[in-house]
Amino acid sequence: MADDFLARLREFVGVQGPTHTARHPITTTAISDWCDAIGDKNPVYVDDEAAAKSRHGGIVAPAATLDIWDRPGLPAQARFRPKGEPAGEDPRSKVLRGLEDAGFVGVVAVNSELEITRYLRPGDLLANTQVLEDVSDEKQTALGVGHFVTTRQRYETVEGEHVGDLLFRILKFKPGTGTAAAAASEPQAAADPSPELRPRPSINRDNAFLFEGYRKNELRIPRCAACAHLFFPPQPRCANCGSFDVGYVVASGTVAVYSHVTVHYPQVRGFAYPLSVVIVELAEGVRMVSNLVGVPADDVHIGLPVEVEWLDAGDVTLPQFRPATPVRRTDTLRLADVEVGATLPPWVLPVTPTHIVAGALATRDFQDVHHDRDLAVKKGSRDIFFNINTSIGYMERYVTDWTGPDVAVSALRVRLGAPSYPNSYLTFRGSVQSVDADTGRVVVAVQATNELGPHITGTVELELPQ
Ligand code: ZN
What we know:
Elements: H1 2-10, E1 20-21, H2 28-38, H3 48-53, H4 91-101, E2 106-116, E3 126-135, E4 139-140, E5 145-157, E6 162-173, H5 208-215, E7 220-224, E8 246-250, E9 255-263, E10 275-282, E11 287-292, E12 305-312, E13 317-323, E14 343-351, H6 353-362, H7 373-378, H8 388-403, E15 408-416, E16 424-436, E17 441-450, E18 453-463
Antiparallel strand pairs: 1-3, 2-6, 2-15, 3-5, 4-5, 5-6, 7-8, 9-10, 9-12, 10-11, 12-13, 14-16, 15-18, 16-17, 17-18
Zinc ion (ZN) binds near residues 224, 229, 238, 240 and 241.
Protein backbone atom coordinates (compact mmCIF):
# COMPACT_ATOMS: atom_id res chain seq x y z
CA MET A 1 0.00 0.00 0.00
CA ALA A 2 2.72 2.43 1.08
CA ASP A 3 4.81 1.13 -1.81
CA ASP A 4 1.96 1.78 -4.23
CA PHE A 5 1.67 5.33 -2.92
CA LEU A 6 5.36 6.02 -3.42
CA ALA A 7 5.35 4.30 -6.81
CA ARG A 8 2.52 6.59 -7.95
CA LEU A 9 4.46 9.68 -6.86
CA ARG A 10 7.61 8.42 -8.50
CA GLU A 11 5.91 8.20 -11.87
CA PHE A 12 6.68 11.91 -12.09
CA VAL A 13 10.42 11.50 -11.47
CA GLY A 14 12.29 12.58 -14.59
CA VAL A 15 9.25 14.38 -15.96
CA GLN A 16 9.86 17.86 -17.32
CA GLY A 17 7.28 20.56 -16.66
CA PRO A 18 6.17 23.24 -19.07
CA THR A 19 8.60 26.12 -19.65
CA HIS A 20 7.59 29.19 -17.73
CA THR A 21 8.58 32.68 -18.83
CA ALA A 22 8.99 35.62 -16.45
CA ARG A 23 6.37 38.35 -16.69
CA HIS A 24 8.96 41.15 -16.94
CA PRO A 25 12.59 41.60 -17.89
CA ILE A 26 15.16 42.30 -15.17
CA THR A 27 15.39 46.01 -14.30
CA THR A 28 17.99 48.17 -12.55
CA THR A 29 15.24 49.32 -10.15
CA ALA A 30 14.57 45.79 -8.98
CA ILE A 31 18.31 45.08 -8.65
CA SER A 32 18.77 48.21 -6.60
CA ASP A 33 15.82 47.29 -4.33
CA TRP A 34 17.52 43.94 -3.70
CA CYS A 35 20.80 45.72 -2.84
CA ASP A 36 18.96 48.02 -0.42
CA ALA A 37 17.25 45.09 1.31
CA ILE A 38 20.46 43.07 1.68
CA GLY A 39 22.60 46.15 2.37
CA ASP A 40 24.93 45.13 -0.46
CA LYS A 41 26.95 48.14 -1.61
CA ASN A 42 28.85 46.38 -4.40
CA PRO A 43 28.94 48.99 -7.20
CA VAL A 44 28.77 46.39 -10.02
CA TYR A 45 25.05 46.07 -9.24
CA VAL A 46 24.11 49.75 -9.30
CA ASP A 47 26.86 52.04 -10.57
CA ASP A 48 27.14 52.23 -14.38
CA GLU A 49 30.63 53.66 -14.38
CA ALA A 50 32.16 51.26 -11.85
CA ALA A 51 30.36 48.30 -13.44
CA ALA A 52 31.69 49.24 -16.91
CA LYS A 53 35.25 49.02 -15.58
CA SER A 54 34.67 45.64 -13.92
CA ARG A 55 35.05 42.16 -15.41
CA HIS A 56 31.31 42.27 -16.14
CA GLY A 57 31.57 45.33 -18.41
CA GLY A 58 28.25 46.72 -17.14
CA ILE A 59 25.64 46.41 -14.42
CA VAL A 60 24.77 42.84 -13.41
CA ALA A 61 22.30 41.28 -11.01
CA PRO A 62 23.71 39.48 -7.93
CA ALA A 63 24.21 35.74 -8.45
CA ALA A 64 21.79 35.03 -5.60
CA THR A 65 18.93 36.48 -7.64
CA LEU A 66 18.91 33.77 -10.34
CA ASP A 67 15.61 32.23 -9.21
CA ILE A 68 13.65 35.36 -8.22
CA TRP A 69 12.87 36.94 -11.59
CA ASP A 70 10.27 34.51 -12.91
CA ARG A 71 8.21 34.39 -9.72
CA PRO A 72 4.51 34.88 -10.23
CA GLY A 73 4.18 37.63 -7.62
CA LEU A 74 1.45 38.39 -5.15
CA PRO A 75 -1.54 37.18 -7.23
CA ALA A 76 -0.27 33.59 -7.10
CA GLN A 77 -0.18 33.38 -3.31
CA ALA A 78 -3.70 32.15 -2.66
CA ARG A 79 -2.25 28.68 -2.03
CA PHE A 80 1.12 27.01 -2.01
CA ARG A 81 2.42 26.82 -5.51
CA PRO A 82 5.97 26.16 -6.73
CA LYS A 83 7.58 29.30 -7.99
CA GLY A 84 6.88 30.25 -11.50
CA GLU A 85 4.44 27.55 -12.47
CA PRO A 86 0.84 28.06 -13.54
CA ALA A 87 -1.77 26.35 -11.36
CA GLY A 88 0.13 23.25 -10.48
CA GLU A 89 0.48 21.32 -13.73
CA ASP A 90 4.20 20.79 -13.29
CA PRO A 91 5.46 17.47 -11.88
CA ARG A 92 6.41 18.89 -8.49
CA SER A 93 2.95 20.34 -7.90
CA LYS A 94 1.36 17.01 -8.71
CA VAL A 95 3.67 15.24 -6.25
CA LEU A 96 3.05 17.85 -3.56
CA ARG A 97 -0.69 17.47 -3.96
CA GLY A 98 -0.34 13.70 -3.64
CA LEU A 99 1.71 14.10 -0.46
CA GLU A 100 -0.72 16.62 1.03
CA ASP A 101 -3.66 14.30 0.38
CA ALA A 102 -1.73 11.64 2.35
CA GLY A 103 -1.25 13.98 5.34
CA PHE A 104 2.22 15.33 4.57
CA VAL A 105 1.00 18.93 4.80
CA GLY A 106 4.05 20.52 6.45
CA VAL A 107 6.68 21.97 4.16
CA VAL A 108 10.19 23.25 4.73
CA ALA A 109 13.01 24.07 2.32
CA VAL A 110 16.10 21.94 2.91
CA ASN A 111 18.66 22.62 0.18
CA SER A 112 19.17 25.26 -2.45
CA GLU A 113 22.07 25.05 -4.89
CA LEU A 114 22.40 27.84 -7.42
CA GLU A 115 24.86 27.53 -10.25
CA ILE A 116 25.56 30.56 -12.35
CA THR A 117 26.58 30.07 -15.98
CA ARG A 118 26.57 33.77 -16.72
CA TYR A 119 25.58 36.83 -14.69
CA LEU A 120 22.14 38.25 -15.37
CA ARG A 121 21.82 41.76 -16.76
CA PRO A 122 19.08 44.38 -16.91
CA GLY A 123 16.87 43.57 -19.89
CA ASP A 124 17.26 39.79 -19.64
CA LEU A 125 13.93 38.01 -19.84
CA LEU A 126 14.18 34.59 -18.21
CA ALA A 127 12.46 31.29 -18.85
CA ASN A 128 12.66 28.33 -16.52
CA THR A 129 12.05 24.66 -17.05
CA GLN A 130 11.63 22.25 -14.15
CA VAL A 131 12.45 18.57 -13.91
CA LEU A 132 11.40 16.50 -10.91
CA GLU A 133 14.59 14.77 -9.88
CA ASP A 134 13.66 12.64 -6.90
CA VAL A 135 11.04 11.72 -4.32
CA SER A 136 12.72 10.05 -1.34
CA ASP A 137 11.59 7.06 0.67
CA GLU A 138 9.68 7.95 3.81
CA LYS A 139 12.18 9.33 6.35
CA GLN A 140 11.95 10.03 10.04
CA THR A 141 13.21 13.59 10.59
CA ALA A 142 13.28 15.93 13.56
CA LEU A 143 10.26 17.73 12.09
CA GLY A 144 8.26 14.64 11.31
CA VAL A 145 7.99 11.66 9.00
CA GLY A 146 8.15 12.86 5.45
CA HIS A 147 9.52 12.75 1.95
CA PHE A 148 12.23 14.88 0.39
CA VAL A 149 11.22 16.22 -3.01
CA THR A 150 14.04 17.39 -5.27
CA THR A 151 13.65 19.43 -8.42
CA ARG A 152 16.11 20.92 -10.84
CA GLN A 153 15.32 24.13 -12.65
CA ARG A 154 17.14 25.28 -15.75
CA TYR A 155 17.18 29.00 -16.47
CA GLU A 156 17.62 30.42 -19.95
CA THR A 157 16.96 33.76 -21.54
CA VAL A 158 14.04 33.79 -23.97
CA GLU A 159 16.71 33.85 -26.70
CA GLY A 160 17.77 30.40 -25.49
CA GLU A 161 21.01 31.27 -23.69
CA HIS A 162 21.62 29.07 -20.65
CA VAL A 163 22.29 31.31 -17.60
CA GLY A 164 22.09 28.96 -14.62
CA ASP A 165 20.52 26.08 -12.73
CA LEU A 166 18.87 25.54 -9.39
CA LEU A 167 18.66 22.34 -7.43
CA PHE A 168 15.93 22.76 -4.82
CA ARG A 169 14.94 20.24 -2.16
CA ILE A 170 12.01 20.48 0.22
CA LEU A 171 10.73 18.20 2.94
CA LYS A 172 7.01 17.46 3.02
CA PHE A 173 6.20 16.11 6.47
CA LYS A 174 3.36 15.15 8.81
CA PRO A 175 3.26 17.81 11.56
CA GLY A 176 3.54 16.43 15.10
CA THR A 177 5.38 13.24 14.15
CA GLY A 178 8.89 14.58 14.64
CA THR A 179 11.58 13.26 16.95
CA ALA A 180 11.98 16.83 18.21
CA ALA A 181 8.23 17.31 18.77
CA ALA A 182 8.33 16.75 22.51
CA ALA A 183 11.53 18.61 23.22
CA ALA A 184 11.30 22.38 23.16
CA SER A 185 13.52 23.55 20.34
CA GLU A 186 14.23 26.86 22.00
CA PRO A 187 16.26 27.42 25.13
CA GLN A 188 14.18 28.48 28.09
CA ALA A 189 15.39 31.60 29.82
CA ALA A 190 15.35 31.32 33.60
CA ALA A 191 14.66 35.00 34.05
CA ASP A 192 12.51 37.18 31.79
CA PRO A 193 15.08 38.93 29.55
CA SER A 194 12.75 41.79 28.48
CA PRO A 195 15.02 44.86 28.68
CA GLU A 196 12.35 47.09 30.25
CA LEU A 197 12.68 44.94 33.41
CA ARG A 198 16.28 46.03 34.00
CA PRO A 199 17.15 48.09 37.06
CA ARG A 200 16.78 51.80 36.29
CA PRO A 201 19.87 53.99 36.20
CA SER A 202 19.83 56.87 38.64
CA ILE A 203 19.78 59.97 36.50
CA ASN A 204 20.87 63.27 38.04
CA ARG A 205 22.05 66.72 36.96
CA ASP A 206 25.63 65.50 36.51
CA ASN A 207 24.84 62.63 34.16
CA ALA A 208 21.53 63.61 32.49
CA PHE A 209 23.37 64.68 29.30
CA LEU A 210 24.64 61.12 28.95
CA PHE A 211 21.12 59.64 28.88
CA GLU A 212 19.85 62.41 26.61
CA GLY A 213 22.65 61.38 24.25
CA TYR A 214 21.65 57.72 24.46
CA ARG A 215 18.10 58.68 23.49
CA LYS A 216 19.55 60.39 20.38
CA ASN A 217 21.85 57.40 19.76
CA GLU A 218 24.93 59.43 20.66
CA LEU A 219 27.68 57.97 22.78
CA ARG A 220 28.80 61.05 24.73
CA ILE A 221 32.09 61.33 26.58
CA PRO A 222 32.37 63.88 29.42
CA ARG A 223 35.04 66.46 28.64
CA CYS A 224 36.52 69.14 30.85
CA ALA A 225 35.97 72.50 29.21
CA ALA A 226 39.01 73.93 31.01
CA CYS A 227 41.73 71.33 30.27
CA ALA A 228 40.07 69.09 27.61
CA HIS A 229 40.50 65.99 29.80
CA LEU A 230 38.13 63.14 28.79
CA PHE A 231 36.75 60.81 31.44
CA PHE A 232 34.03 58.27 32.11
CA PRO A 233 31.63 57.92 33.89
CA PRO A 234 30.39 61.50 34.35
CA GLN A 235 31.49 63.33 37.50
CA PRO A 236 30.67 66.81 38.80
CA ARG A 237 34.25 68.06 38.40
CA CYS A 238 37.36 67.29 36.42
CA ALA A 239 39.76 64.95 38.24
CA ASN A 240 42.65 66.41 36.25
CA CYS A 241 42.31 70.14 36.94
CA GLY A 242 39.38 70.42 39.34
CA SER A 243 37.18 72.50 37.06
CA PHE A 244 33.39 72.20 37.43
CA ASP A 245 32.92 73.20 33.81
CA VAL A 246 32.14 69.80 32.26
CA GLY A 247 30.88 69.41 28.70
CA TYR A 248 31.05 66.43 26.34
CA VAL A 249 32.17 65.18 22.94
CA VAL A 250 30.40 62.54 20.85
CA ALA A 251 32.46 59.35 20.49
CA SER A 252 33.74 58.42 17.03
CA GLY A 253 32.34 54.91 17.39
CA THR A 254 35.66 53.06 17.09
CA VAL A 255 35.57 50.72 20.05
CA ALA A 256 37.29 47.47 21.10
CA VAL A 257 36.89 44.97 23.93
CA TYR A 258 39.34 45.77 26.73
CA SER A 259 38.28 43.06 29.15
CA HIS A 260 35.39 40.62 29.46
CA VAL A 261 33.66 38.15 31.71
CA THR A 262 30.70 35.81 31.19
CA VAL A 263 28.00 35.79 33.86
CA HIS A 264 25.85 32.68 34.29
CA TYR A 265 24.46 33.24 37.80
CA PRO A 266 22.85 34.93 39.56
CA GLN A 267 20.32 35.80 36.88
CA VAL A 268 18.64 39.16 37.00
CA ARG A 269 15.42 40.00 35.17
CA GLY A 270 15.95 42.07 32.04
CA PHE A 271 19.11 40.30 30.87
CA ALA A 272 19.66 37.20 28.71
CA TYR A 273 22.11 34.58 30.01
CA PRO A 274 24.89 33.66 29.63
CA LEU A 275 25.54 37.40 29.80
CA SER A 276 28.67 38.86 28.30
CA VAL A 277 29.85 41.78 30.44
CA VAL A 278 32.64 43.79 28.89
CA ILE A 279 34.82 46.77 29.53
CA VAL A 280 35.20 48.45 26.16
CA GLU A 281 37.81 51.02 25.27
CA LEU A 282 36.81 53.85 22.99
CA ALA A 283 39.30 55.25 20.46
CA GLU A 284 39.22 58.45 22.54
CA GLY A 285 40.85 56.53 25.38
CA VAL A 286 38.02 56.20 27.92
CA ARG A 287 36.60 52.88 29.03
CA MET A 288 33.07 51.89 29.96
CA VAL A 289 31.26 48.83 31.27
CA SER A 290 28.58 47.42 28.99
CA ASN A 291 27.22 44.21 27.50
CA LEU A 292 28.33 42.43 24.37
CA VAL A 293 25.62 40.75 22.30
CA GLY A 294 25.39 38.61 19.18
CA VAL A 295 28.41 36.45 19.87
CA PRO A 296 28.92 33.36 22.06
CA ALA A 297 31.20 33.84 25.08
CA ASP A 298 33.87 31.59 23.54
CA ASP A 299 34.30 33.99 20.64
CA VAL A 300 34.87 37.10 22.77
CA HIS A 301 38.49 38.17 23.04
CA ILE A 302 40.47 41.18 24.14
CA GLY A 303 40.88 43.58 21.26
CA LEU A 304 37.73 42.41 19.43
CA PRO A 305 36.47 45.41 17.42
CA VAL A 306 32.91 46.19 18.42
CA GLU A 307 30.25 48.73 17.52
CA VAL A 308 27.51 50.27 19.60
CA GLU A 309 23.89 49.26 19.23
CA TRP A 310 21.03 50.91 21.07
CA LEU A 311 18.80 48.98 23.40
CA ASP A 312 15.31 50.29 24.03
CA ALA A 313 14.81 49.51 27.73
CA GLY A 314 11.47 51.24 28.15
CA ASP A 315 11.92 54.77 29.45
CA VAL A 316 15.67 54.73 28.84
CA THR A 317 17.87 53.86 25.90
CA LEU A 318 21.12 52.08 26.73
CA PRO A 319 24.26 51.36 24.73
CA GLN A 320 25.40 47.80 24.27
CA PHE A 321 27.92 46.43 21.81
CA ARG A 322 28.16 43.77 19.13
CA PRO A 323 31.15 42.71 17.01
CA ALA A 324 31.88 45.44 14.46
CA THR A 325 30.51 44.89 10.95
CA PRO A 326 33.46 43.90 8.74
CA VAL A 327 34.48 46.72 6.44
CA ARG A 328 33.56 46.14 2.81
CA ARG A 329 36.64 45.84 0.64
CA THR A 330 36.66 48.33 -2.24
CA ASP A 331 39.57 46.86 -4.19
CA THR A 332 39.51 43.14 -5.04
CA LEU A 333 41.57 40.35 -3.51
CA ARG A 334 43.82 38.55 -5.96
CA LEU A 335 44.14 34.81 -6.03
CA ALA A 336 47.67 35.04 -4.60
CA ASP A 337 46.27 36.89 -1.53
CA VAL A 338 44.09 33.94 -0.53
CA GLU A 339 45.08 30.70 1.09
CA VAL A 340 43.21 27.61 2.22
CA GLY A 341 42.15 27.88 5.86
CA ALA A 342 42.10 31.69 5.94
CA THR A 343 39.13 32.89 7.96
CA LEU A 344 36.76 35.74 7.26
CA PRO A 345 35.98 38.12 10.13
CA PRO A 346 32.66 37.21 11.74
CA TRP A 347 29.66 39.35 10.87
CA VAL A 348 26.81 39.75 13.33
CA LEU A 349 23.56 40.76 11.70
CA PRO A 350 20.80 41.90 14.07
CA VAL A 351 17.70 40.48 12.38
CA THR A 352 14.65 42.74 12.53
CA PRO A 353 11.15 42.34 11.04
CA THR A 354 12.16 44.98 8.47
CA HIS A 355 15.13 42.87 7.31
CA ILE A 356 12.82 39.88 6.88
CA VAL A 357 10.00 41.68 5.06
CA ALA A 358 12.31 43.80 2.90
CA GLY A 359 14.30 40.68 1.95
CA ALA A 360 11.18 38.69 1.07
CA LEU A 361 9.71 41.43 -1.11
CA ALA A 362 13.02 42.30 -2.79
CA THR A 363 13.36 38.61 -3.72
CA ARG A 364 9.77 38.72 -4.97
CA ASP A 365 8.60 36.15 -2.45
CA PHE A 366 5.11 36.94 -1.20
CA GLN A 367 4.55 33.86 0.96
CA ASP A 368 2.76 35.01 4.08
CA VAL A 369 5.17 33.37 6.55
CA HIS A 370 7.77 35.95 5.52
CA HIS A 371 5.67 39.07 6.14
CA ASP A 372 2.57 38.30 8.25
CA ARG A 373 3.27 37.31 11.85
CA ASP A 374 -0.30 36.20 12.64
CA LEU A 375 -0.37 33.80 9.69
CA ALA A 376 3.17 32.60 10.43
CA VAL A 377 2.13 31.75 13.99
CA LYS A 378 -1.01 30.02 12.76
CA LYS A 379 1.21 27.81 10.60
CA GLY A 380 3.23 26.70 13.60
CA SER A 381 6.07 29.21 13.47
CA ARG A 382 7.21 31.48 16.32
CA ASP A 383 7.20 34.51 14.06
CA ILE A 384 7.96 35.54 10.48
CA PHE A 385 11.32 34.27 9.25
CA PHE A 386 13.87 34.82 6.47
CA ASN A 387 13.04 33.30 3.13
CA ILE A 388 15.86 31.25 1.68
CA ASN A 389 16.72 33.81 -1.00
CA THR A 390 17.34 36.50 1.61
CA SER A 391 19.65 34.23 3.59
CA ILE A 392 21.56 33.33 0.43
CA GLY A 393 21.70 37.02 -0.49
CA TYR A 394 23.33 37.82 2.85
CA MET A 395 25.74 34.92 2.37
CA GLU A 396 26.79 36.26 -1.03
CA ARG A 397 27.19 39.76 0.42
CA TYR A 398 29.27 38.45 3.34
CA VAL A 399 31.76 36.76 1.02
CA THR A 400 31.92 39.45 -1.68
CA ASP A 401 32.31 42.21 0.94
CA TRP A 402 35.40 40.26 1.99
CA THR A 403 36.79 39.59 -1.53
CA GLY A 404 35.99 43.01 -2.94
CA PRO A 405 33.67 43.82 -5.82
CA ASP A 406 35.23 42.49 -9.01
CA VAL A 407 34.61 38.75 -8.74
CA ALA A 408 32.38 36.24 -10.49
CA VAL A 409 30.29 34.02 -8.23
CA SER A 410 29.70 30.68 -9.93
CA ALA A 411 27.77 28.78 -7.26
CA LEU A 412 25.87 29.34 -4.01
CA ARG A 413 24.98 26.13 -2.21
CA VAL A 414 23.22 25.95 1.15
CA ARG A 415 21.62 23.52 3.54
CA LEU A 416 18.99 25.11 5.73
CA GLY A 417 18.78 24.53 9.47
CA ALA A 418 17.07 26.56 12.18
CA PRO A 419 14.82 29.38 11.04
CA SER A 420 15.97 33.00 11.36
CA TYR A 421 13.37 34.96 13.34
CA PRO A 422 13.28 38.69 14.11
CA ASN A 423 14.89 40.18 17.21
CA SER A 424 17.78 37.76 17.14
CA TYR A 425 21.38 37.84 15.94
CA LEU A 426 22.58 35.93 12.93
CA THR A 427 26.35 35.47 12.99
CA PHE A 428 28.15 34.67 9.74
CA ARG A 429 31.50 32.93 9.80
CA GLY A 430 33.55 31.79 6.84
CA SER A 431 36.79 30.18 5.84
CA VAL A 432 38.52 29.41 2.58
CA GLN A 433 37.95 25.78 1.71
CA SER A 434 39.85 25.49 -1.57
CA VAL A 435 41.89 27.55 -3.99
CA ASP A 436 42.48 26.44 -7.56
CA ALA A 437 45.50 28.24 -8.98
CA ASP A 438 44.72 27.13 -12.53
CA THR A 439 41.18 28.39 -12.79
CA GLY A 440 41.31 31.18 -10.19
CA ARG A 441 38.41 29.50 -8.45
CA VAL A 442 38.00 29.80 -4.69
CA VAL A 443 35.46 28.06 -2.49
CA VAL A 444 34.51 29.75 0.78
CA ALA A 445 32.62 27.73 3.39
CA VAL A 446 30.05 29.80 5.26
CA GLN A 447 27.87 29.14 8.25
CA ALA A 448 25.32 31.54 9.74
CA THR A 449 24.15 30.65 13.24
CA ASN A 450 21.68 32.06 15.72
CA GLU A 451 20.57 31.06 19.23
CA LEU A 452 18.74 28.02 17.79
CA GLY A 453 21.82 26.64 16.01
CA PRO A 454 23.06 26.74 12.42
CA HIS A 455 20.64 28.61 10.14
CA ILE A 456 22.47 28.04 6.87
CA THR A 457 25.56 26.01 6.10
CA GLY A 458 27.01 26.22 2.65
CA THR A 459 29.62 27.36 0.18
CA VAL A 460 30.21 30.27 -2.13
CA GLU A 461 32.26 29.42 -5.19
CA LEU A 462 33.80 32.33 -7.01
CA GLU A 463 36.52 33.40 -9.36
CA LEU A 464 39.12 35.94 -8.25
CA PRO A 465 41.46 37.94 -10.49
CA GLN A 466 44.79 36.12 -11.01
ZN1 ZN B 1 40.11 69.64 33.53
